[in-house]
Design a protein that fits this description.
alpha/beta; Rossmann fold; 10 helices; 11 strands; elongated; binds 6-O-phosphono-beta-D-fructofuranose
């Protein structure tokens, strides 16, 4: 292992830069050169590689986003695109590839490593925390904290005006951000995109709180495939239960910002581990976090279905908000 490449793919997440820094500095410490690929898989297809030395990753540990930039790359889903990407890696004499990203990026990495004889290691990095085999993906903690800060502010206005707010958080199909924000902000109820909107139950929870003197109610909504599910909840509450609620969609504010301690710490450890896997001669690995430890498993084993934890946490939220 003499030359490795690293790229970030899919949505950016706070802590990606910590992992990039750890990859670069660990590799250099083992006399391995590192090449940063600009704009994710698209940059691999377009041959956008540049060498990263130790100082090129200086002063980034505290920054959000990714210095390598990122993209959602359609071309990499085609055989032709992946062939170009492999040819460029060969041209640059790259012996191993590190991919930082979420579920979709990991699927791309897995297909690529099945098709070509090139060691690939995935580092889970997405605010969605949606990779089954790992308890943690880099960026999740910062995104949750950002959303909590926002809901706390909304709560001030909700109490002052005695209002109900419907706050929509990111996460696509993953319920993780919604669950954590719902529990930590004392929400009355959570709406998950995977489940029917139970407006009767939500309305009953809001009314129960008002009856015992609550001055505000917060309903957290997970966005699903497309932002805007909150408006359906708002309409149902208004039309069927005469509850007037305000909608606030937090959106991309949750993706940026200074990484928290957790994202810096786990990001640094995962980056370091990824290089060790490549140096050890591993071919197709995913870095994971389990029981407080960073380790790795085969890339092919990291897509099992995640357990459904919506229901128990919804029960917790409802029990604690009474
Ligand atoms: O995957 C991270 C994420 O922020 C999701 O939570 C969200 O659904 C999606 O990306 C938004 O993607 P984009 O920034 O491409 O609109």
């Amino acid at each position: 292992m003499k030359r490795i490449a690293i790229l970030t793919s899919g949505g950016d997440s706070p802590g990606m830069n910590c992992a990039i820094r750890a990859v670069v500095r660990t590799a250099i410490g083992h006399n391995v050169q590192v090449f940063g690929v600009q704009r994710g898989y698209q940059g691999l297809i377009n041959n956008e590689l540049r060498e990263l030395d130790a100082s090129s990753v200086g002063n980034i540990i505290h920054t959000g986003g990714t210095i390598l930039q990122t993209s959602r790359c359609k071309d990499f889903t085609t055989e032709e695109g992946r062939k170009k990407a492999f040819e460029n890696l060969q041209k640059n004499k790259i012996d191993g590839l590190v991919v930082l990203g979420g579920n979709g990026s990991f699927k791309g990495a897995k297909i690529f490593s099945d098709e070509y004889d090139l060691p690939v290691v995935g580092i889970p990095a997405t605010i969605d925390n949606d990779i089954s085999s790992t308890e943690y993906t880099i960026g999740f903690d910062t995104a949750v904290q950002t959303a909590i800060d926002a809901v706390d502010k909304i709560r001030d206005t909700a109490s002052s005006h005695e209002r109900t707010f419907i706050v929509e958080v990111m996460g696509r199909k993953s319920p993780a951000i919604a669950v954590h924000v719902g529990v930590c902000c004392g929400a009355e109820n959570i709406v998950f995109p995977s489940k029917e909107i139970d407006s009767a139950r939500i309305a009953a929870d809001i009314k129960r709180g008002i009856k015992r003197g609550k001055t505000s109610s917060i309903i957290v909504v997970g966005e699903g495939e497309k932002a805007g599910l909150s408006y359906e909840v708002q309409k149902e509450l208004e039309n069927s239960h005469q509850i007037n609620a305000h909608v606030c969609i937090l959106g991309h504010i949750q993706r940026g910002g200074r990484p928290t301690h957790q994202d810096r710490f786990i990001g640094s450890k995962m980056g370091n581990q990824a290089v060790k896997e490549l140096i050890r001669g591993e071919k197709s690995r995913a870095i994971i976090y389990q029981n407080g430890m960073v380790s790795s498993i085969s890339l092919e084993n990291c897509f099992e279905t995640k357990i459904d934890y919506e229901t128990p946490f919804l029960e917790l939220v409802r029990a604690l908000s009474r």
